[in-house]
Amino acid sequence: MSRPPFLTLPACARAYRLATSRGEFAVHEALPSGAPRGTALLVPGFTGSKEDFVALLEPLAAAGYRTVAVDGRGQHETEGPHAAAGAYERAELARDVRAQARALGGDVHLLGHSLGGLISRAAVLDDASAYRSLTLMSCGPAAISAPQQARTRMLVDALGTLDMDAVWQEMRRLDGKTAESAPAGPVDPELGAFLYRRWMATAPGQLMSTGTLLTTEPDRTAELAAVPLPKHVVSGVRDYAWPVPWIDAMAEELSAARTVIDGAEHSPNAERPAATAEALARFWDLS
């Protein structure tokens, strides 16, 4: 999961609930000092939330972009049904993204991180009319790597039998035990408390359904390549979910702009936010 480098919103940002045709979604929105050059909608990944983008808000606003990071249904501060019951299927989540984009006025620069990239891709394939560009960040062409599939299936299975706290404790025990898992490292107590609260607030059905999506997603790169929308593929120099060569090949097939963020791994948005924001604004300026 992404670890935000800090949690306090910058002065240019506020938290509120975005009203859409598909319900309300918790968001963080940052506004530039002058007229916006455009609007960006940021969609988080598996086990993530809008806070994963907190370090991008100020630099993107400074670059002239109205920037809105969202909690998807069942994520953190956006309500969703406890059980899956079809509510968290890829098509449903993609329709949520389209509703969010339209509520923001349309013509948005859409960015999806990791799982959020798969959902954003589905949203664009369903109907690209609400988007000005698409950025896939730390997201590959299909299902995640085999070691991560095994790890994610373990999580999905555990969610079917254990409560959220018990699963959290087991995840912490497993963190860092394999080279393919997200780097653990020391966690600031305030951040650790937030990560636990976020986990406990996330609907188990959302995690089970989206975890299954990550292990079964087909390759839809050719479909996306046919959509006449500016595309950007961003990653770190290493990625434990999708090997970087997979991401490179996907970008080439998409004829997409390609940015590799030096010093970053699976979460450039949190690990190297200044360089990531610069790359995003540069792409959006040309889109």
Textual characterization of the structure:
It is built from eleven helices and eight strands. The chain has 287 residues and is an alpha/beta fold. The chain has one domain: Rossmann fold (3-Layer(aba) Sandwich), CATH 3.40.50. It has an eight-stranded mixed sheet with strand order 1-2-4-3-5-6-7-8, sandwiched between helices. A hairpin with a 2-residue loop joins strand 1 and strand 2. The longest helix is centred in the middle third of the chain and has 14 residues. It comes from Streptomyces eurocidicus.
Keywords for this entry:
287 residues, Rossmann fold, 8-stranded mixed beta sheet, 11 helices, 42% helix
Rounded average pLDDT:
94
The count of helical stretches stands at: 11
What is the strand tally?
8
> What is the CATH third-level topology name?
Rossmann fold
Reported CATH architecture? 3-Layer(aba) Sandwich
Described by the principal axes of the CA atoms, the overall outline is globular
Number of domains: 1
Helix content: 40-55%
Strand content: 15-25%
The largest pleated sheet is described as: 8 strands, mixed
N-end to C-end Cα span? 30 Å
Strand order of the largest sheet: 1-2-4-3-5-6-7-8
Secondary-structure element pattern, one letter each: EEEHEHEHEHHHHHEHEHH
* Stretches with pLDDT under 50, minimum 5 residues: 177-184
Radius of gyration: 17 Å
Structure class: alpha/beta
CATH superfamily: Alpha/Beta hydrolase fold, catalytic domain
CATH class: Alpha Beta
